[in-house]
Amino acid sequence: MKTLAKLPVTIVTGFLGSGKTTLLRHMLDNAQGRRIAVIVNEFGELGIDGEILKQCSIGCTEEEANGRVYELANGCLCCTVQEEFFPVMRELVARRGDLDHILIETSGLALPKPLVQAFQWPEIRSACTVDAVITVVDSPAVAAGTFAAFPDQVDAQRKLDPNLDHESPLHELFADQLASADLVILNKSDLISREDLARVRLEVAEELPPAVKVIEASSGRVPLDVLIGLGAGSEEHIDGRHSHHDHHHDGEDDHDHDAFDSISIDLPQADEALLLDALTQLVVQHGILRVKGFAAIPNKPMRLLIQGVGTRFDKHFDRAWGADEARITRLVLIGQDLDAAGLEAQLRAALSV
Fold this sequence. Notes:
Residues 57-61, 78-82, 161-168 and 249-259 have low confidence and may be disordered. The protein has helices spanning 20-29, 48-54, 62-68, 77-94, 112-118, 122-125, 139-143, 151-159, 169-179, 194-205, 224-227, 234-237, 272-286, 340-351; strands spanning 7-13, 36-42, 69-73, 101-105, 128-138, 183-187, 213-216, 261-267, 290-295, 302-309, 312-320, 329-335. A seven-stranded parallel sheet has the order 3-2-4-1-5-6-7, with helices on both faces. Strands 8-12-9-10-11 form a five-stranded antiparallel sheet, sandwiched between helices. The chain is α/β, with parallel strands linked by helices. 35% of the residues lie in helices and 23% in strands. A hairpin with a 2-residue loop joins β10 and β11.
């Protein structure tokens, strides 16, 4: 009986807005026939990141694509690993003869080290190996000394964790994401000067083992052969990687995920400019960290996909509405202490719907 080789797994980590999902889309769009399973870890009931990934032209039917995207909502992988991650991996292990690779995108505040350590479990270790941990860095944010595009909002959420008492918790989480890395991508490198990029490279290198490669990218455009096939076997050496938060998983996991609110809002068709203006006002007034979703624009045959980090919004028409599909606007808002009813009322008033 032929023994199956271990299934390689790539873990993509980095702060919200650094470009993790864009990188995964690029990888799937350039899969070159590889059969790839995707685990998307995100906040939000609607699985917007999953929707984005399913739009990638990966050469399979919609039914097959749905079967390859596993969305683990409401909690970082390192904390829900025993409840959600293990059964998903067990299902993928059972199908590993039909797969060539697994991609995992962690949430923006996840600690990658405990996830990598999960690959030491006998049932997973015998069938899978961590090909590499890729940490995506927001180069302009690091150059500005903030590490994330909207550090005040992220830092406020970090401080709500009673286990953390650091002067610079955001910097320490950034360092921990780098400490687990086998490859670092300095993303958005085209948005800063060469001098600033050189400073970012030096700052990142201070947190890395000497063997870890650092590369530059714009919008996550990196050749697939650079991203997979690294053969790092990260689970074998992760215990030796120092982390500021090693003690958090020594006993029971007591992260306070109540710090995060994720609310979904359904609206009718909306004027594009009015909607974006209204969302910008909500972000400014209520400290919303992330906006994801899609909108129905009057007289437009295609759906408008919207992604926002702070007051920065990306949008594009991703596909045509189905003949029997309800043309509605569906949004997920992520932040802390959010008043769902109040936010929806404010949006409806701004849109006069």
